């Protein structure tokens, strides 16, 4: 009987320890609080890699360039690929936008 009681006590302590570890804030999911988009406008016919950086609720940042959804507001001036490569199409301005986890970041560019 003592062996069963001891085994039950060990099991309860192990489960309590596991539950305490799961409640640790360092393991809690963080959320995206803001996004930034950076890059240099390419000339007509040239390309430039843009970057998308997410700021998390923990204060840390994460490169999400390949995870973001990219758009250009004016495809007559610039297009953007799914990986953030911007191509200069014609002279003009465009807003390059990256969306990650429903948070949007943007950079206005002028293609010379």
Written account of the structure:
- Strand 8 (92-100) and strand 9 (103-111) form a beta hairpin.
- This protein has one helix spanning 2-22, and strands at 32-38, 47-49, 51-56, 61-63, 69-72, 78-80, 85-88, 92-100, 103-111.
- The strands form 3 sheets. The protein has a 3-stranded antiparallel beta sheet with strand order 1-3-4, with no helix packed on it.
- It starts with a helix and ends with a strand.
- It has one domain (27-111): Immunoglobulin-like.
- It is elongated and about 40 Å long.
- It is of the alpha+beta class.
- Residues 15-27 have low confidence and may be disordered.
Give the helix/strand layout.
Layout: H1 2-22, E1 32-38, E2 47-49, E3 51-56, E4 61-63, E5 69-72, E6 78-80, E7 85-88, E8 92-100, E9 103-111
Antiparallel strand pairs: 1-3, 2-7, 3-4, 5-8, 6-7, 8-9
Describe, in short, the structure shown.
The protein is α+β, with helices and mostly antiparallel strands. It contains one helix and nine strands; from the N terminus they run αβββββββββ.
């Amino acid at each position: 009987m003592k062996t069963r009681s001891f085994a039950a006590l060990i099991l309860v302590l192990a489960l309590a320890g596991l539950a305490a570890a799961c409640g640790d804030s360092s393991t809690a999911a963080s959320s995206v609080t803001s996004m930034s988009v950076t890059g240099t406008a390419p000339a007509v016919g040239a390309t430039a890699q843009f970057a998308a950086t997410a700021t998390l609720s923990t204060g840390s940042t994460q490169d999400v360039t390949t995870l973001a959804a990219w758009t250009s507001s004016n495809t007559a001036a610039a297009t953007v690929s799914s990986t953030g490569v911007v191509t200069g199409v014609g002279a003009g301005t465009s807003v390059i936008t990256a969306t990650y986890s429903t948070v949007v970041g943007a950079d206005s560019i002028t293609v010379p």
